[in-house]
Design brief:
The protein is built from 5 helices and 4 strands, in the order H-E-H-H-E-E-H-H-E. By secondary structure, it is α+β, with helices and mostly antiparallel strands. Helix 3 packs antiparallel against helix 4. The longest helix is centred in the first third of the chain and has 24 residues.
């Protein structure tokens, strides 16, 4: 019986390796971006836990909303950052890269709106980089 479990494990492991090799054999080029809060550690040290959560929530949700408006896909949030990409850039069409830039400009232009939201909830202003 131990051999059977060992053999099954070996077969599963081999299938996983084959899958990973197949995955790595195909590549697609995308424009990948990240937006993160400047000096977030310092800011977070001065806020109570409840306010920290709200601070991140306001920022990350607003950024994700903008990404979606420009046909981007959010991969995940990484603490104070949002990782996202634009699948249409695989076509390598100039207009798709202009769309990426327009998304980033929209993020920057939204800073006053986000800071107004922060202020209304008694949170410190936010600075971020893309």
């Amino acid at each position: 019986m131990a051999e059977t479990n060992s053999e099954n494990h070996g077969i599963k492991e081999q299938k996983q390796i084959e899958f990973l090799l197949q995955f790595s054999a195909s590549t697609t080029d995308y424009c990948v971006c990240i937006v993160d809060i400047v000096s977030s550690t310092k800011i977070m040290m001065s806020l109570p836990h409840v306010k920290v959560s709200r601070y991140y929530e306001i920022f990350l949700n607003k950024m994700a909303e903008i990404v979606r408006k420009f046909d981007g896909i959010v991969v995940k949030n990484i603490g104070d950052s949002l990782l996202f990409y634009f699948p249409n850039t695989a076509t390598k069409q100039t207009r798709e890269f202009e769309n990426v830039l327009n998304c980033c400009f929209a993020m920057l232009e939204t800073n006053p709106e986000i800071n107004q939201m922060m202020s209304s909830e008694d949170l410190p202003p936010i600075k971020y980089r893309i």
